[in-house]
């Protein structure tokens, strides 16, 4: 800590041509958290992994990011990240780890980029602390260990930030164009989420550049136009292509990329209107009351499940503690209730908010004495950039109607940057006895330790009392001792300051390791002792990821007449006992929001008749296994049909695509609610010999109820003895086991 008082210029000069030895262990920590055991995740997020399998088969599938090898429907996101994943799979072979690898490397790259961005202005120690804080922010490695998009998105936005900072330093307009073009690339990763950083880019460029207002407006207008052109480039190509020459745009209601971008993946995230019925009308996301109502209706059908369900209900009840400012903490997918204190509620706070109080104190210190009209120092300008990134994103997550916990990675860069820059700034103020500002350091330590105790308190049963009491006691003691020794200057004070930072990072470090310790969930990644459930809530009692969360649910065609199943955590921390319960009063029965962002009405139709290897985690979603008996039957009886079989949604189809590389038709797209297919179109496909087998689970009808009714009325039911496995527990769902049908038309 004593080195932190060195001048930034001297630090930069002395370290210019040397490798920062302090950075090496930080990078190794990030590499361990992001890479260790990713090879055990066999399917990753099966929805996206199936798309990579399909994209490997043809340029047509590659360009459009087709979910299935037949080019029937796309995934619900733009293609750039999946292009990268496909290239990785082409180089290293198709594996779960090869599609995860790009995101894991992006997570490590974000740590390095943050070090570079913060170090140049705030000093080498600030860069080190910022990099370490980024590496240990729990949601960062949790997401980076999956094939979800967000880690790559954040890395891309940090690259754009580096370009913008360089544009200001060099006064070269080309770097401004490059920075905004990079945001356009990020748009083609996750659409409007990439635009969350735009306030920071505009504010920083206006404040930091020393050019006339006329030039500022002209440059920003040109850069924005380029950004928009890059953003919509792929969308324009796709939307202008005839619908019969490309896959249907998954999760849209009008087969349009632009509708997907600004509706389903845009404004609807804020409003929460992400559920869609077959008619295309939007419904509000599931409310807390609906979750509670659904929870009370769930029952178990065996003594084992009764015990497990009871434990889950107790754990769920313990979650419903009051958040700061009131309100219970569950919310949909454990994202809390909208309000100013949402980021401090359970389910969100343990993913991202460990250092937020320290960040608030840091912001006060960094902006102390700043006059609105300036002039501003470089430190103040860059602090303004990070603040303009932090505040709008924090506000969005405080009020948004629908998002998943792992989206919170968008807050990690500004929080880490302020943690690093603030640690140095507050330490300097403390050492210089800078009036009231000298109290910011002990105040920040005390309040941050208090919040961390609050975050950990619901997890006493899984982590014990000792770490909670330890963080609380050490935080109070170190803050008080630093306050008492404020007038003294010796090495002991330096060590106390360093010890305080270690204490504040200790539990985030543990939380960041939980996906490794307890197992992760690639479909709904999160950190914490319940990380394998991917739903927040109480710690899972499962021994591996197959038994927790969605992975404990049995796939299609698996039955032994036993109605029990492994309970999994559902939205709001309720137990599901192997069943997917529809929201009370919902007109879209069986519908449930899933991580691609859409609602999932599907029952798990893919079950495995063989034992899965204990060394591999099939955590690809609700059903990441294949019923081998069903697959054998379909393969043997295929007489040249294009599609191995058709089913209601992607959840049922994905494992078979991954396993075989053959086309499987998800008739209603990801959730089963896309209005892709009509009866007349289906008749034409059957007459052409493109498909003859249909697996229907009784869920996922959405926009295809007419189609499903027609299938049932015009098909021959295949006896379950010919294709249904009997070695696993029964598949659960509101309609029981699925049914296999055959249709042949002349």
Short description:
The chain starts with 7 loop residues before the first helix and ends with a strand.
Shape: globular
Please give the order of strands in the largest beta sheet. Answer: 4-3-5-7-6
Rg over CA atoms: 26 Å
Helix and strand content put the structural class at mainly alpha
| Largest sheet descriptor | 5 strands, mixed
Count of helical segments? 27
User: How many individual β-strands?
Assistant: 7
Give an overview in words.
The protein is mainly α. The protein starts with 7 loop residues before the first helix and ends with a strand.
List the keywords.
single chain; 746 residues; mainly alpha; five-stranded mixed β-sheet; two-stranded antiparallel sheet; 51% helix; 2% strand; globular; disordered N terminus
What's the arrangement of secondary structure elements?
Elements: H1 8-15, H2 23-35, H3 46-55, H4 59-64, H5 80-92, H6 96-122, H7 124-136, H8 139-144, H9 150-170, H10 173-190, H11 198-208, H12 213-239, H13 257-271, E1 275-276, E2 282-283, H14 288-297, H15 303-319, H16 349-352, H17 356-367, H18 378-399, H19 412-431, H20 440-456, H21 460-463, H22 465-484, H23 491-517, H24 628-636, E3 646-647, H25 650-660, E4 665-666, H26 679-687, E5 693-696, H27 705-713, E6 716-717, E7 739-742
Parallel strand pairs: 3-4, 3-5
Antiparallel strand pairs: 1-2, 5-7, 6-7
């Amino acid at each position: 800590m004593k080195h932190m008082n060195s001048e930034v210029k001297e630090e930069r000069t002395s370290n210019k041509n040397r490798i920062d030895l302090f950075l090496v262990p930080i990078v190794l920590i990030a590499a361990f958290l992001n890479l260790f055991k990713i090879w055990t995740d066999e399917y990753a997020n099966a929805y996206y992994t199936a798309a990579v399998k399909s994209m490997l088969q043809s340029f047509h599938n590659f360009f459009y990011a087709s979910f299935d090898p037949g080019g029937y429907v796309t995934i619900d996101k733009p293609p750039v990240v999946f292009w990268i994943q496909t290239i990785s799979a082409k180089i290293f072979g198709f594996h779960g780890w090869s599609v995860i690898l790009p995101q894991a490397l992006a997570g490590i790259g974000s740590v390095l980029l943050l070090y570079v961005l913060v170090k140049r202005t705030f000093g080498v120690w600030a860069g080190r602390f910022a990099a370490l804080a980024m590496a240990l922010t729990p949601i960062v490695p949790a997401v980076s260990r999956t094939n979800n998009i967000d880690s790559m998105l954040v890395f891309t936005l940090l690259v754009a930030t580096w370009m913008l900072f360089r544009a200001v330093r060099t006064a070269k307009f080309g770097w401004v164009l490059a920075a905004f073009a990079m945001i356009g690339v990020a748009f083609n990763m996750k659409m409007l989420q990439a635009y969350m950083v735009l306030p920071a880019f505009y504010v920083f460029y206006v404040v930091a550049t020393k050019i006339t207002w006329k030039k500022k407006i002209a440059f920003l207008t040109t850069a924005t136009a380029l950004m928009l052109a890059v953003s919509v480039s792929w969308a324009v190509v796709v939307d202008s292509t005839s619908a019969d020459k490309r896959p249907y745009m998954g999760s849209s209601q009008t087969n349009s990329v632009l509708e997907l971008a600004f509706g389903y993946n845009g404004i609807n995230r804020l409003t929460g209107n992400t559920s869609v019925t077959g008619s295309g009308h939007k419904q509000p996301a599931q409310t807390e009351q609906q979750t509670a109502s659904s929870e009370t209706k769930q029952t178990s059908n065996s003594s084992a499940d009764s015990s497990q369900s009871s434990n889950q209900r107790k754990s769920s009840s313990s979650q419903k503690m009051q958040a700061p400012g009131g309100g219970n903490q569950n919310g949909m997918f454990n994202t809390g209730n909208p309000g100013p204190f949402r980021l401090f509620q359970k389910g969100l706070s343990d993913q991202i908010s460990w250092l937020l109080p320290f960040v608030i104190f840091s912001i006060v210190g960094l902006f102390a004495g700043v006059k609105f009209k300036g002039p501003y120092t470089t430190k103040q300008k860059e602090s303004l950039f990070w603040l303009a990134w932090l505040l709008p994103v924090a506000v969005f997550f405080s009020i948004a109607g629908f998002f998943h916990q792992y989206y919170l990675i968008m807050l990690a860069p500004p929080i880490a940057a302020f943690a690093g820059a603030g640690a140095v700034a507050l330490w300097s103020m403390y050492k210089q006895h800078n009036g009231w500002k000298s109290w910011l350091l002990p105040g920040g330590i005390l309040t941050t330790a208090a919040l961390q105790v609050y975050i950990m308190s619901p997890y006493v049963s899984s982590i014990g009392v000792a770490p909670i009491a330890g963080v609380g006691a050490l935080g109070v003691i170190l803050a008080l001792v630093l306050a008492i020794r404020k007038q003294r200057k010796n090495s002991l004070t330096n060590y106390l300051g360093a010890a305080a930072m270690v204490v504040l990072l200790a539990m985030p470090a543990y939380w960041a390791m939980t996906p490794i310790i307890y197992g992760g969930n690639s479909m709904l990644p999160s950190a914490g002792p319940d990380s394998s459930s991917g739903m927040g809530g109480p710690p899972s009692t499962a021994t591996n990821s197959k038994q927790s969360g969605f992975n404990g649910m049995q796939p299609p065609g698996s039955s032994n007449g036993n109605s029990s199943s492994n309970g999994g955590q559902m939205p709001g921390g309720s137990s599901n006992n192997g069943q997917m319960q529809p929201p009370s009063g919902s007109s879209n029965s069986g519908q449930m929001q899933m991580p691609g962002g859409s609602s999932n009405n599907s029952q798990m139709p893919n079950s495995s008749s063989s034992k899965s290897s204990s060394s591999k985690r099939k955590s690809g979603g609700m059903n990441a296994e294949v019923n081998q008996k069903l697959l054998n039957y379909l393969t043997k009886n295929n007489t040249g049909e294009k599609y191995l079989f058709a089913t209601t949604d992607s959840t049922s189809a994905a494992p078979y695509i991954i396993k075989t590389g053959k086309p499987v038709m998800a008739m209603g797209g990801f959730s089963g609610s896309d209005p892709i297919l009509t009866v007349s179109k289906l008749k034409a496909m059957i007459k052409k010999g493109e498909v003859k087998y249909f697996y229907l689970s009784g869920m996922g009808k959405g926009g295809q109820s007419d189609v499903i009714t027609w299938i049932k009325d015009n098909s021959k039911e295949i006896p379950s003895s010919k294709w249904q496995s009997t070695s696993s527990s029964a598949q659960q769902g509101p309609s029981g086991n699925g049914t296999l049908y055959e249709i042949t038309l002349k």
